[in-house]
Write a structure and sequence with these properties.
about 30% helix, 7-stranded mixed sheet, 4-stranded mixed sheet, about 300 residues, 3 domains, 15 strands, 9 helices
Length: about 300
């Protein structure tokens, strides 16, 4: 017998036999999640443990197991540093399936899995590079590309927290393609890392940049900057010039902001400064920059 079979035999002494198969599926699913660097189960100085719960009449049976070591955990062998994740054998499910031709391992309640499936069906078809696999743990998704490249999506109500692992920003925008704009439309609030990605994705074409500028930057422009634009007969020409320069900067060096200096021939003594800052919940615009990535002469 291998370690998993021995563990399942031990679980038969603690849980109803009809739940053993489901418990085994959960253990293997959490074990696989522990290998993903972005996953909360990834062992960074702690051991992830899985608490299997089962209601039996008026009681709740709890069994603690290690999905990595494939053994039952008791007070005698409890690791000093641990994180415990719960799986309810009555309400939680593990689903191994395919979504948009991509292998998917999904863990959670039915409603959580439904939300994840709908999101993946909305975004995967618009990616330039199809994922090799996707994983979800309740409201968190981990989408794998290649050998060890991941993006993470955490759904919080109508909000989205975006993260990435081992993918340069310039490559990230090319991988996701139009999916970035789909994500933007699906969620009301996003984190700073997503708005940075959205800015980079908008540099793919002038029309996309124009839409980003008018939605996220123009409404927040300081008064002098707005007057400068409105004085122009057609400020699309200025935006095309700005787009031309922004699209040529080193994308991978963009951090939390982008700084622009606008030198005016009509006011050589008073250049305009414009800082685009990526924040939680949106884009902030300031009239003072910390570092200029782009200088324009108009």
């Amino acid at each position: 017998m291998n370690k998993l079979e021995i563990l399942l035999e031990d679980l038969k002494l603690r849980l109803p036999e009809r739940d053993i198969k489901k418990a085994g599926e959960a253990i293997l699913a959490y074990r696989e999640l522990s290998e993903i660097p972005m996953s909360p189960l990834y062992p960074r100085g702690f051991q992830p443990l899985l608490l299997l719960k089962k209601r039996l009449g008026g009681f709740e049976k709890r069994v603690l197991v290690s999905p990595i070591e494939l053994k039952i955990i008791t007070n005698a062998n409890m690791p000093a540093w641990r994180r415990i994740f719960e799986f309810d054998l009555d309400d939680d499910i593990v689903e191994n399936t395919k979504i948009a031709e991509t292998r998917a391992l999904l863990i959670g309640k039915l409603n959580e899995i439904r939300i994840v499936k709908n999101l993946l069906l909305d975004v995967i078809p618009y990616m330039n590079v199809k994922p090799s696999s996707v994983y979800s743990l309740r409201n968190e998704l981990f989408i794998k590309f290649g050998e060890n490249e991941f993006i993470g999506l955490r759904i919080i109500g109508s909000g989205l927290e975006f993260s990435s692992y081992n993918i340069p920003l310039s490559h990230l925008s090319r991988i996701l393609g139009r999916a970035t704009f789909i994500l933007d439309s699906l969620f009301k609030s996003k984190n700073a890392e997503f708005y940075r990605l959205l800015f980079v994705a908008s540099l793919g074409s002038f029309n996309s940049f124009y839409a980003f500028f008018m939605r996220h930057i123009f409404p927040r422009l300081p008064l002098e900057h707005r007057e400068f634009l409105e004085e122009m007969h057609d400020y699309k020409n200025f935006l095309q010039l700005l787009y031309f320069h922004l699209s040529r900067i080193n994308i991978d060096r963009i951090q939390e902001s982008v700084g622009v200096i606008i030198r005016r021939r009509s006011r050589p003594d008073r250049p305009l400064e414009l800082e685009i800052i990526f924040r939680q919940g949106g884009v902030e615009v300031r009239d003072r920059i910390r570092r200029a990535q782009v200088e324009l002469l108009v």
